[in-house]
Amino acid sequence: MPRELQFQVSPEVANNEILLVNFVAKLLQISVKEIQKVVVLKRSIDARQKSIKFNIKANVFLVDEPFFESIIELPDYPNVENAQEVVVVGAGPAGLFAALQLIELGLKPIVLERGKDVRGRRRDLKAINVDHIVNEDSNYCFGEGGAGTYSDGKLYTRSKKRGDVDRILQLLVGFGASDEILVEAHPHIGTNKLPQIIQDIREKIIACGGKVLFDTKVTDILIKNTEVDGVVLQDGSIINSKKIILATGHSARDIFELLDRKDIYIEAKPFALGVRAEHPQELIDKIQYSCDFRGDFLPPAPYSIVKQVAGRGMYSFCMCPGGVIAPCATSPGEVVTNGWSPSKRDQVTANSGIVVELRLEDFKPFEKFGALAGMEFQKSIEQKAWQLAGETQKVPAQKMVDFTQKKVSSSIPKTSYVPGTTAVELGEVFPDFLTNTMREGFAQFDKSMRGYFTNDAILHAPESRTSSPVRIPRDPISLEHVKIKGLYPCGEGAGYAGGIISAAIDGEKCALKIKESLN
Asked: Cβ of 31: how many Cβ atoms within 10 Å?
């Protein structure tokens, strides 16, 4: 049996297999020749002390112990071409992993995606970045792979209780992700690598007899006697089905409006909203690692901050070390920001959403919209930001200290946000309670990260799509909608996930419940 060890090593040792084996031999007081293999199970950085260390959990195999390289293999997916069909609306992580699980269970998924495939999406992303043209069905939020495909590919989740995180990570490795995601404490695929993985998942679904239809927008859900009967597509055609997984993402406002219009019960849900702050990565490294230069063996430093400000949570969200800020509007007449990093995280800037928790009472000015009050609140801020920045995809921007002093920045340096910025007093974008919370909060952030509060940081507004502003209630046992049989609200858009991993887990759970209901 291998020995399981936990220890700390320097960054140089952690990144060099020979040095790591030498360290382990010394730790065990044995010869290097007696060690067959050191298999790292988990790895994380401990930057709390001046001397930065890597925490390592590893199995050590000696020369006389059996050792086999572990190979991640995909499940033996059956052919489901002639099996019972299940409609899956949305090809984000919830929809795609629901489809894979359906196939594994012997059911045929029909995946309907309003946007384009990963390759086709690129033209529309260029259009929004360069020409300021927003395609309502193909953008950073809509299209194959959903919002995660071109917005970072973070795989870290706190949702351990929701399901088997390791299973999702292993499936991603099976579809081409680096096996390092099984080891790292905060795994990340990278926007440059995720599209190929998403494409391979789609090809597997099709090879097994499932269907994936792009440019296929659902405009209605057919219901007979409180049970789903199918969906109506934009071209008027109908796909009949008694089982529908609704995995449309947190930005599918037309779906929320459809459900509200059809009196399919939904409810407003609190979410968080704020700005996206961009710092030089070198500054974040200096703060986090307490050094002038991080060296060759440390990755670009991330950060995570949570503060209570005037009774509200204010925190970093979707932090992207070595990353860029992207335009994520889904309709003309609005601006939205998000962030992503390539796999190497090698950009010179770091960015993070800095957001404030909202409450249902904050949506009172929009109460006439009922369950859509939060969505309308969100929309109003995005539209105001668009107007103030010049009615293009430029975003309102302000230096951080200037923001707290209510001073329009005299100039905004070029940032990673390609469409550009317009100097605006951001207090004009947000309601007073949000503005005041953020102004106080940024000064508090500096108490945790000395040097964070600086005019070298540029605030871009708004960061508004942190999670769904609507919840589609479902039965906690069957996972069906509380009123409509056969409808399975799923993933981020329904209010049951918050990222790639938790959305994928939720998609699998819905697929399992469908199979259970058919037995």
From this structure: 9
C-alpha closest to that of 64 among 116, 12, 1, 117 = 1
Per-residue confidence at 162, pLDDT binned at 50, 70, 90?
A: low
Question: Smallest Cα–Cα separation from 327: which of 396, 245, 412?
Answer: 396
Whose CA is closest to 282, among 326, 321, 319, 317?
A: 321
Residue 259 has pLDDT above 70, yes or no: yes
8 A C-beta contact, residue 329 and residue 393: yes
Q: Contacts from 233-237 at CB under 8 Å and sequence distance 24+? A: 233/112
Q: What is the CA radius of gyration of the chain?
A: 24
Could you write out the DSSP letters of every residue in 167-206?
HHHHHHHHTT--GGGGTBSS-B--TTTHHHHHHHHHHHHH
Mean pLDDT of 204-217: 98
Q: Which residues fall within 8 angstroms of residue 249, CB to CB, at 6 or more apart?
A: 90, 92, 141, 142, 146, 147, 491, 492, 493
Q: Could you tell me the sign of the dihedral formed by the alpha carbons of 454, 460, 464, 465, in that order?
A: negative
Model pLDDT for residues 413-461, shown as the tens digit of each residue: 999 999 999 999 999 999 999 999 999 999 999 999 999 999 999 999 9
Provide the pLDDT confidence category of residue 75 given band limits of 50, 70 and 90.
Answer: very high
Helix ranges, 248-372 (H): 253-261, 281-289
Give the length of the chain.
519
Question: In this structure, are strands 324-327 and 421-423 parallel, antiparallel, or unpaired?
Answer: unpaired
> What is the DSSP track for 397-423?
EEEHHHHHTT---S-----S-TT-EEE
Asked if 383 and 312 touch (Cβ cutoff 8 Å), the reply is no
Token pair listed for 454 = 């600086």
Structural tokens at position 397: 């921007």
CB atoms within 10 A of CB 330: 24
CA dihedral 93, 194, 145, 331 (to 10 degrees): 130
Three-state DSSP string of 425-453: CHHHCCCHHHHHHHHHHHHHHHHHCCCCC
Single-letter residue type at 19: L
Residues 6+ apart with CB under 8 A from 252: 90, 114, 142, 493
Q: Which stretches of 262-315 are DSSP H helices?
A: 281-289
What is residue 2's DSSP assignment?
P
